[in-house]
Amino acid sequence: MRRSPEREMLVLAAREPSPQRDHALAAAVAAVADWRTVPALAHAHGLTPLLVRALEASGVEARVPAEERRRLTLLASATALLSAVLFGALERVLERLSARGVAPLVLKGPALAASVYSEPALRPFYDLDLLCREEELAAAAECLRALGYVAEAHSATTQEGFHSVYFHPTDAAAVELHRDLLQLGLPTRCQPALWERAQPLVVGKMRARMLSLEHQLLHLAVHLHTHGFSRLIWFKDLDLLLRRHQGEVDWTALHALARAEGVSLSLRHALAAVRELLGTPLPPEAGRDLGWDPLGMVAHAVLWPHGRVLALAGKQRLRSVRFNPRQGPSGVVPSLVVMGRRREKLTYLLHASRASSRRRRAALRRLGRR
After folding, report:
1. What is the pTM of this model?
2. What is the DSSP string of 6-22?
3. CA–CA distance, 145 with 137 (Å, rounded to integer)
4. H-assigned helices in 213-263
5. Contact 267/225 with Cβ under 8 angstroms?
6. If 51 and its partner were Cys, which of 13, 58, 130, 264 is the partner (CB 3.0–4.6 Å)?
7. What is the pLDDT of residues 210-240, one digit of tens each?
């Protein structure tokens, strides 16, 4: 499946600058057939600031129709303003949490914008993701309510139980409190080590913490997989993190983490795709020791064909990666096929089945005594 000229332009804008990149970008700009779709497409992929920057740096912005160039510039400016607002909100939240003795880890957008992008405004984000220790969640929620945040009502969706969302009515900020880094339906085995190996992060005047390099890479790969490899900015996150820390990744430890969490396929496919899409430099050892899972690989190829992923046509299939028995067979069978830790999942189902049988027998006995 080939990428359209519009999507090809976005991929090139996400690549690191080079004369070859700029030449290819000029050709892609000339081939764009429908410029009216470009601002919305760039926004959907989180690429508006990077696209505007790439067009300016390569000297081809004049070839963009005036109206679309204006819309892209306005979107990039609005993104920068929103990022500034959200960083301010994050600083206030971290200050209140620190005063209460709560020490979360800052995840995804704000952590990456502040640590791997040359300018924070180049990495759009629309909410604040915080990972808390289980015993600190109640205190964190209380702090958010004291700051004026309101909890989102729970709904019977695939997201329920994986995190809690709080909105601020005037700050236009949303905070997601996470208790589980990977959110795959089984307890994250590396959870205790997340805080032991956490790295410093500066947010305004506040000193915070974020994931270590290997935990960050694992999280980004799983997040990409969970959301169907559907947004280019998530590939760029992985690309920049690997480029900024070339030679520093402990690949043996990362592969061991992936195997322990049952997400070796997530890491394998994320690394392969980011290398092909963005030319990310990877050492030979990056693809070694990830195990062999024929069943999972066949299922993965059916659900997320490599050609569709590279064409930016990936599709979110949460039920295929998350183990969620509350949803019945559809929340169990796909995860058993696609992801790892199958023995744990089968053990859980066996125990749940036995418990259900005991409850049914007890109910029948009660009926028989009436």
Report:
1. 0.91
2. HHHHHHHHHSPP-HHHH
3. 12
4. 213-226, 232-244, 251-261
5. no
6. 13
7. 999 999 999 999 999 999 999 999 999 999 9
Tokens of 172: 């236009």
Q: Which of 126-135, 147-156, 305-314 has the lowest mean pLDDT?
A: 147-156
Rounded distance, CA 290 to CA 269, Å?
A: 11
- Percent of the chain's residues with pLDDT above 70: 93
Distance CA 175, CA 97 (A): 13
Position 258 pLDDT exceeds 70: yes
For residue 123, the tally of other CB atoms under 10 A from its CB is 26
Distance from C-alpha of 45 to C-alpha of 257, rounded to nearest angstrom:
29
> Could you give the residue ranges of the DSSP H alpha helices within the chain?
5-14, 19-31, 38-44, 48-58, 66-99, 108-115, 137-146, 191-196, 213-226, 232-244, 251-261, 264-278, 294-303, 306-310, 318-321, 333-338, 342-369
Domains in the chain (CATH in brackets) are 99-211 (3.30.460.40), 220-339 (no CATH)
> In this predicted model, what pLDDT tens digit does every residue of 60-97 receive, in sequence order?
999 999 999 999 999 999 999 999 999 999 999 999 99
If you search the block for the tokens 């190829």, which residue do you land on? 301
pLDDT at 112: 97
Which amino acid appears at position 140 of this protein? Answer: A
pLDDT(6) > 70: yes
Do 39 and 75 contact (CB within 8 A), yes or no? yes
The residues, ordered by sequence, that sit 6+ positions from 45 with a Cβ below 8 Å of its Cβ are 10, 231, 232, 233, 312
